[in-house]
From TrEMBL:
The lineage of its organism: Bacteria, Pseudomonadati, Bacteroidota, Flavobacteriia, Flavobacteriales. Belongs to the class-III pyridoxal-phosphate-dependent aminotransferase family. Pfam families: Aminotran_3 (PF00202). The keyword Transferase applies. InterPro entries: Aminotrans_3 (IPR005814), Aminotrans_3_PPA_site (IPR049704), Class-III_PLP-dep_AT (IPR050103), PyrdxlP-dep_Trfase (IPR015424), PyrdxlP-dep_Trfase_major (IPR015421), PyrdxlP-dep_Trfase_small (IPR015422). Gene3D superfamilies: Aspartate Aminotransferase, domain 1, Type I PLP-dependent aspartate aminotransferase-like (Major domain). Its cofactor is pyridoxal 5'-phosphate. Keywords: Aminotransferase, Pyridoxal phosphate, Transferase. This is Acetylornithine aminotransferase. It comes from the Bacteria. GO terms for molecular function: identical protein binding; pyridoxal phosphate binding; transaminase activity.
Length: 384
């Protein structure tokens, strides 16, 4: 049976990984500066992660949410302590799309309203309401388009104000650093005024931290760079270092009721073991401090390269923008230099999302390769 052909694939077959490296079926080593869409937070095959998951699967891998699971409470407690999101409550699911889906559903339950405000170049997932709130018509099927969503420009405070005052908006959902859209960020004034507008209009403010969370921005959550208090915070990707896990942090003003939300696999024993090991490693290895040091080092070097027209993002969620499309550049980096990088809907942007354990020597390797490829491109242009 063939696989349903929905992914354009690079001709690379990773079979193992260690730290910031992956190894293919021919034994070649690749520097991973993309982390599988920012999923690999503490490095491939981190020994504490491997040990935690292995020990858990050897005892109990799964049972449903019909029984008590102390690992869920432990995960919630550690997440509250390390994130600083005091008194929020945790609902666990399996992915970022599910997290945003549940966040939007909860907002609709809480407010009794159904319309959503989202933003241009935003990406929130591929399921029903989450994909409707995503600014990409190519992935929105007619069944998704039935959702009531208004897409506005980032920084359009007056637009948000006008929409919320109509009285039918249940949620405003925003990435504090856009991921797939290309690492754009709104201003502090915008985020803070939207937060206030939501509170004044019985509208839930949802912080999509699926990609930017868990230290990647230089704080535990990207919204913590601003003076805002989200009603719901969605999390996933780096939360499990590769194990499928997601969740939402829910403000205590939102009351839980039996049956309000539910999941079969969410918060299972293996997922919680993986999630706890990630939090422990982030704390023990001071990885958020490392994010800030490595980010400063990366940006300092990037500023010296004239072909880079703009540096976007923050922390280790970075984008390098050029005046040409980067598809061929990415191919050169992966096939000739054995370095994984990412793309975005902005075709001129190279995305950098390494494990939070990345070091200066890895950044040096990347820039040495990048400078070489850029020089090669310029030589070809001169010859032409």
């Amino acid at each position: 049976m063939p696989l349903f052909n929905v992914y354009p694939l690079y001709d690379v077959t990773p079979v193992s990984g260690k730290g910031v490296y992956v190894y293919d079926d021919k034994g070649a080593e690749y520097l991973d500066l993309y982390g599988g869409h920012a999923v690999i937070s503490i490095g491939h095959a981190h020994p504490k992660y491997v040990d935690a998951v292995s020990r858990q699967v050897s005892t109990l891998g799964f049972y449903s949410n019909a029984i008590k699971n102390p690992l869920q409470k432990e995960l919630a407690s550690e997440l509250e302590r390390l994130s600083g999101c005091k008194d929020y409550e945790l609902f666990l699911c399996n992915s970022g799309a599910e997290a945003n889906e549940n966040a939007l559903k909860l907002a609709s339950f809480k407010t009794g309203k159904s319309r959503v405000v989202a933003f241009k170049n935003g990406f929130h997932g591929r399921t029903s309401a989450a994909v409707a709130a995503t600014d990409n018509p190519n992935i929105i099927a007619p069944i998704n388009a039935q959702q009531q969503v208004t897409i506005l420009d980032l920084n359009d405070v007056e637009g948000v104000k006008a929409e919320l005052e109509k009285g039918d908006v249940c949620a405003v959902i925003v990435e504090f650093i856009q991921g797939v859209g290309g690492l754009d960020m709104a201003t502090a004034d915008f985020f803070e005024r939207v937060d206030a507008l939501c509170k004044a209009n019985n509208t839930m403010f949802i912080a999509d931290e699926v990609q930017s969370g868990y230290g990647r921005s230089g704080k535990f959550f990207a919204f913590q760079h601003y003076n805002v208090t989200p009603d719901v915070i969605s999390i996933a990707k780096g939360m499990g270092n590769g194990f499928p896990i997601g969740g939402i942090l829910i403000h205590p003003d939102i009351e839980a009721k039996f049956g309000l939300l539910g999941t079969t696999f969410g918060g299972n024993h293996l997922a919680c073991a993986a999630g706890l090991s990630v939090l422990h490693v982030i704390e023990e290895q001071n990885l958020i401090d490392n994010v800030n040091v490595m980010s400063e080092y990366f940006i300092k070097i990037a500023k010296t390269i004239p072909q880079i027209k703009e540096i976007k993002g923050r922390g280790l969620m970075l984008g390098l923008e050029f005046d040409f499309e980067v598809g061929d550049l990415r191919k050169k980096l992966i096939y000739e230099n054995h370095i994984f990088t990412g793309g975005a809907s902005n075709k001129k942007l190279l995305r950098i999302l390494p494990p939070l354990t990345v070091r200066k020597e890895h950044i040096n390797m990347f820039f040495e390769a990048l400078i070489g490829v850029l020089a090669e491109f310029e030589n070809k242009a001169v010859e032409a």
